[in-house]
Specification:
Blueprint (H helix, E strand, L loop, with lengths): L27 H5 L1 H11 L2 E5 L5 E5 L2 H9 L3 E2 L26 H6 L8 H5 L2 H19 L4 E2 H17 L4 H15 L6 H24 L5 H12 L4 H14 L2 H15 L2 H9 L4 H11 L9 E3 L3 E3 L2 E3 L4 E4 L1 H5 L34 H18 L4 E2 L8 E4 L2 E4 L3 E3 L5
Parallel strand pairs: 2-8
Antiparallel strand pairs: 1-2, 3-5, 4-12, 5-8, 6-7, 9-12, 10-11
């Protein structure tokens, strides 16, 4: 959800007079192989000033100890020290949790906590498993003896259906909701007018659900958030609508990409894939290792230093943009022994930072883990001889440095044993 204005690749921002030109390491090659770029900085210059693809300077923090400290440091601000005016009327998504710091972030986020616990998400497991099985049935029926494009045939519809289950979206409303969700997940493919229309439709959807659940509560996310709001107060109607819209949007494409990246990792490690296929009880624990191994978000949401902040021997000046490198921290050998090995039994796997840390820890992490567990269990159980349909190094990566996107993942369900 965090983006920067696009700039032309052939017209990088010039360095100010007298200033040394900053490295620009986060381009197309980075999207394909972020580990190589990040490891080079982590081991030689762990806190370094760079220029982003949008032409903006930022400090890149790459070692796990420093990244963890950054997540917990209140001087690193998501809002840049600005507080949205609660008196200004806003649509859902105009201002979301990534625009707030504590204590405002805390008073809004706490409304979602009771709705997204592991126990609450587990109550939806049977319906989410049914969705996975139905989509795999459809993929089998459509493919004949050919390959399956896993992202379109399974990952995207599965993530969307899972969200519809936890938000209790009726079947007859799902097609209309899918279009704005898909558009906002991949804004680059759509016009500004289409994006504006999609935001308006999400706003109308969320507020309609809020009005409905106010008089007919259920066991879904909207009902639980509204119940917490009635009990605790502390937020405006616009803030609650934005919270719900953010949960809906943030839970879609990140999960789609996590499924694709996890399957791609297993395709590149057949011994691990065979182990999980033969012992599916190990999949829930392996999910954390797969989240450590690769992540759609190589960095947390960009932060601003409100004061001078020291990381090791380097002082990041007040006012600077800061990128905490989640992907680098997840592969830091100081935190994870032999990080280049995909080990589903790794004892430190749960210490990955893919969901963040501290006040901004991902509120939807329990749902994401459930979806990944169900998806991988279903795929490996249905297609025990799964293999890639193209060499893995030919997979196409897009999106941006804040959110990588796997364009397609063609697989052969009936590969060689």
């Amino acid at each position: 959800m965090d983006t920067e204005p696009a700039v032309r690749a052939d017209a990088p921002a010039p360095a100010p007079a007298g200033e040394q030109r900053l490295p620009e390491p986060l381009g197309a090659e980075f999207l394909t192989r972020p580990d190589s770029t990040l490891a080079a900085f982590r081991e030689t210059c762990p806190v370094v000033r760079i220029r982003t693809p949008a032409g903006r300077p930022a400090w890149l923090v790459t070692r796990a100890e420093d990244v963890r400290a950054g997540f917990l440091d209140p001087r690193l601000s998501l809002s840049g020290g600005r507080v949205p005016d609660p008196g200004v009327r806003r649509r859902a998504l105009d201002v979301t949790l990534v625009n707030y710091d504590p204590p405002d972030h805390t008073r809004i986020r706490r409304l979602a906590t009771p709705a997204l616990t592991p126990a609450r998400m587990a109550a939806h497991r049977e319906r989410i498993e049914r969705a996975a099985h139905e989509l795999l049935d459809a993929a089998d029926a459509a493919r004949g003896h050919g390959p399956v494009e896993l992202m379109d045939a399974f990952a995207r519809p599965f993530a969307f259906r899972s969200l519809c289950e936890v938000f209790a979206v009726p079947q007859e409303e799902r097609a209309a909701l899918h279009e704005p969700v898909a558009r906002l997940a991949d804004k680059a493919k759509h016009t500004p007018g289409e994006i504006e229309e999609s935001v308006a439709r999400i706003d109308a959807f969320v507020r309609g659900k809020m009005a409905l659940r106010a008089t007919a509560a259920g066991d879904d996310v909207v009902s639980r958030v509204l119940a917490a709001w009635r009990e605790q107060g502390g937020a405006t109607e616009d803030e609650v609508a934005s919270l719900l819209a953010m949960l809906l949007l943030a839970g879609f494409d990140s999960t789609v990409q996590a499924i694709g990246m996890s399957v791609a990792a297993l395709l590149g490690h057949p011994e691990v894939r065979h182990c999980l296929r033969d012992e599916p009880r190990r999949i829930p624990r392996a999910v954390d290792e797969l989240l450590r191994w690769d992540t759609p978000g190589p960095f947390s949401t960009k932060r601003v230093a409100l004061q001078d902040i020291r990381f090791g021997d380097t002082v990041v000046p007040a006012g600077s943009g800061v990128l905490l490198s989640v992907a680098s921290a997840n592969h830091d050998p100081r935190c994870h022994a032999d990080p280049g090995t995909l080990d589903p039994a790794r004892s430190t796997a749960a210490r990955h930072l893919t969901f963040g840390l501290g006040p901004h820890y991902c509120p939807g992490s329990a749902l994401a883990r459930l979806e990944l567990t169900v998806a991988l269990t279903g795929i490996l159980g249905r297609w025990p001889r799964l293999t890639p349909a193209v060499p893995l190094h030919e997979l196409v990566w897009g999106g941006g440095y804040l959110h990588r996107r796997l364009a397609a993942l063609p697989v052969l369900p009936d590969g060689p044993a």
